[in-house]
# Entry
Amino acid sequence: PSVMVEMSKSDYYFIVGDLGFEKAWSKRLVENNPNVKVIDCSQGIELIEGEEHHHTDEKGHTHSHGSLDPHVWSSPSAVKQLAKNMFNAVVESDPENEETYFTNYDRFVNKVDSVDKVISDLLTEVPTRSFIIFHPSLGYFANEYNLHQHSIEYEGKSPSPSQIKSLIDIAKKENINTVFIQKGFDIKNAEVIAKEIEADVFEIDPLSYDWDTELIKIAQILSRDKDNI
# Structure
């Protein structure tokens, strides 16, 4: 409650865009404080499908249903759009300081472009373009750099034995040699799969404040020469 009281004093509330808890709290905030303007930072970003599940109807047709992937911050191009949306909002709120905001915004965009180039160079000729991750938080990263993300977690839950077997079969077919785990997530299933396919396990932090360093680290892992480790 104390946080909500502090938030009610704000002019603007920035949301990433498609996070469930974020939508619920921003709705409640606006209902109680109609003067607070909510800024959707994902506006203008082409959102991609998240986890999918499949079912077959009575006619034998297979249908896919998936929610939108909210992890837009794993893509440098998406991060630039996030920054642009925030920049436009603060300029609207404080036009007298537009020059200062623009200087900082421009500096940040240049930094993002540099990060993008480093990652692009690292991933030009990777041994395999597929990887496994427990929680599917690198969808936009994979989409931007022509990679393929396979998630261990299924619809927010740990996988069943049959799902693990299916993932192992895919991993062998696509020569996957990298399994990512994130801080705070269960490592057991990841280790089981990694052992079965003789892959390496790496801990990453997609929520790191130093997002640029973390994305470059992920690219370096994927571009490594496994035979020389």
Summary: Residues 52 and 194 are 23 Å apart (CA to CA). The two ends are 51 Å apart (CA to CA).
